[in-house]
Amino acid sequence: MIIDNLIEQIRKKNNPSVIGLDTHLDYLPVEMRAGIARELPMRTIPPFGGWQVVIDKDRLKNAIWTYNKQIIDAIYDIVPAIKVQLAYYEMYGVEGIQALSQTIQYAKEKDLIVIVDGKRNDIGATATCYANAYLGKTNINELEYKVFDGDFLTVNAYLGSDGIRPFLKCMEEEKKGIFVLVKTSNLSSGELQDLRLENQLTVYEYMGQMVKKWGENFIGQYGYSSVGAVVGATYPKQAATLRQQMQHTFFLIPGYGAQGGKATDIQTCFDKNGLGGVVNSSRGILCAYQQEEYIGKSFDIAAREACIAMQKDLTSVIKIK
Amino acid sequence: MIIDNLIEQIRKKNNPSVIGLDTHLDYLPVEMRAGIARELPMRTIPPFGGWQVVIDKDRLKNAIWTYNKQIIDAIYDIVPAIKVQLAYYEMYGVEGIQALSQTIQYAKEKDLIVIVDGKRNDIGATATCYANAYLGKTNINELEYKVFDGDFLTVNAYLGSDGIRPFLKCMEEEKKGIFVLVKTSNLSSGELQDLRLENQLTVYEYMGQMVKKWGENFIGQYGYSSVGAVVGATYPKQAATLRQQMQHTFFLIPGYGAQGGKATDIQTCFDKNGLGGVVNSSRGILCAYQQEEYIGKSFDIAAREACIAMQKDLTSVIKIK
């Protein structure tokens, strides 16, 4: 079970955190992103017809990849997992996806668990494509090859079981996992998720019940399932309810740091052995070098120190046994 | 308003359909996909260490792109729009995304409206990345460039307004649109969507109300908003309810053909002028050449004839004025 591998990494490193590589080019030191985009005249001979933005594709890809590699090199020995947010790579088109692919591969070489954050969802046949892309294998003329090969994928279950089953099938075959959105960290998450159903459950509690059911056949040796749930750090009360209702469900917990969630808010997500969740921080780590306390330090050194600070903060309240 | 452009294309071509380019390599004629994947020995000198699958990346990209181009060439004068399902391109990794990018660009050159089907969803900062990627512009060092440049993107609103607002902002700036998942076409869509809330609305009706609100400032000259809704052809009763409750919301209607939805099922989605929705077919068109009735015809000719058959079927019950 992949969830056991994640938990073992967390125990070994005494660190229940995952670092989000949501690599926005604006986060990079200026010198790393110089010259990627240039404005050139539309025509070089008269009549001139305005200007166009030309992208140096190799520089674009290399900037994102180099930044990620240096971050990974700086932190791989102290954190159990990274999370790649697909939106940030898709935003840079084909070159972003190339950098993503290299990043996932490199993180796995460094024995990091890779959570692909895509919040994917679709009908069965299409969900199968997503499962193949991010967790399993794509079939071409009867031959199978791995495409992105992440360990976990985040998914959205608005479409119900049909859209989840292809991931479960892929999990069985490939020893992978998913995290299903249950209670998200954003301000408006309650607009739909907190509504109460006729059966007295809220939408997020109902979603939690479905997640529990989907995860039943994937419970590993620590009592947690490879079908996990996304539960925001910004809603400690709801998280506590869910922890009680879903004792075998591991939580991916966004919202710590930049979004406002504190270690004490998160405590209720964990069991008496200090297990039960992994806490994400993205900007707080990637952009640490821009913070006053790390001034003068390179981005990778600052990221490492911020990871250590986060580990200390979390383990001051979460005692991992 | 982009919705007006879509409606004008529908009226001009007297065709309320959108063709889904969900290009699975298995759909291609054997000769177009030959030689893309090969099995080679891991080592060429002894001791031999098993086999590995090697992908000819240029052939992979070109096969998908060539197929799509030939389909577009065969149908662009008779259909108003195409829909690209991202999962199918992501499944082929970087090369899939390259083919996607070429396909979108080519379809736009042919004056087709391009609906990007990604069902994307995330918190605000991340939703902004998705909006930039598929509808707007990505900023690099203060310079902006278009990445995929679709006309519409499908989105999932489980996260509430925060996750939608970045798309609305992008729509204002770029004259683009979205379709929000309301009632999906799959068998299990009711597991969550049909549940009744304390306020007596079902989840899908409540979602419909949110979509209506988000769309208020984007209503075009035909009375429809550029914030549309995904409403499955497979649930005619629910679709009829939604049409009544959302008179300014245009529907993207999947589920026709391969999924079982019939023209008569879809009728209730349309207003007295034959407007109000666009009906998707993917496999039914792409794989028409494998059907008995088109035997001996090339895939593109068969696709064109299947589009004409679909147009006739739809317009037999939907009279566009």
Structure report:
The structure is a homodimer of 321-residue chains. In chain A, the strands form 3 sheets. In chain A, strands 1-4-5-8-9-10-11-12 form an 8-stranded parallel β-barrel, surrounded by 7 helices. The first copy, chain A, has a two-stranded antiparallel sheet with strand order 2-3. In chain A, α3 (57-75) crosses α13 (299-317) and α6 (124-134) packs parallel to α7 (165-174). The mean pLDDT of chain A is 96. The first copy, chain A, is α/β, with parallel strands linked by helices and 321 residues long. Helices cover 41% and strands 20% of the residues of chain A. Chain A contains 13 helices and 12 strands. The radius of gyration of chain A is 21 Å and the shape is globular.
Give me the secondary-structure topology.
2 copies of one chain form a homodimer.
Chain A lengths: L1 H11 L4 E5 L8 H4 L3 E5 L9 E5 L1 H19 L5 E5 H5 L2 H17 L3 E8 L3 H11 L2 E4 L2 E4 L5 E4 L9 H10 L2 E7 L6 H4 L9 H13 L9 E7 L4 H10 L3 E5 L9 H4 L10 E5 L1 H4 L12 H19 L4
Parallel strand pairs in A: 1-4, 1-12, 4-5, 5-8, 8-9, 9-10, 10-11, 11-12
Antiparallel strand pairs in A: 2-3, 6-7
Core attributes:
homodimer, 321 residues, alpha/beta, 8-stranded parallel beta barrel, two-stranded antiparallel ribbon
Task: Specify the oligomeric state.
Answer: homodimer
Main sheet properties of chain A: 8 strands, parallel, barrel
Radius of gyration of chain A, in Å, reads 21 Å
- What is the overall shape of chain A? globular
Output the strand order for the largest sheet of chain A: 1-4-5-8-9-10-11-12
Q: Roughly how many Å apart are the termini of chain A?
A: 20 Å
Q: How many beta-strand segments of chain A?
A: 12
Unreliable residue runs of chain A:
none
Helix amount of chain A, in percent? 40-55%
Largest interchain contact: A-B, 76 and 76 residues
Calculate the mean pLDDT score of chain A and round it. Answer: 96
Encode the helix/strand succession of chain A as letters: HEHEEHEHHEHEEEHEHHEHEHEHH
- Please state roughly what percent of the residues of chain A sit in beta strands, choosing from under 5%, 5-15%, 15-25%, 25-35%, 35-45% or over 45%: 15-25%
Instruction: Give the helix/strand class of chain A.
Output: alpha/beta
Please tally the helical runs of chain A, counting DSSP H or I stretches of 4 or more residues.
13
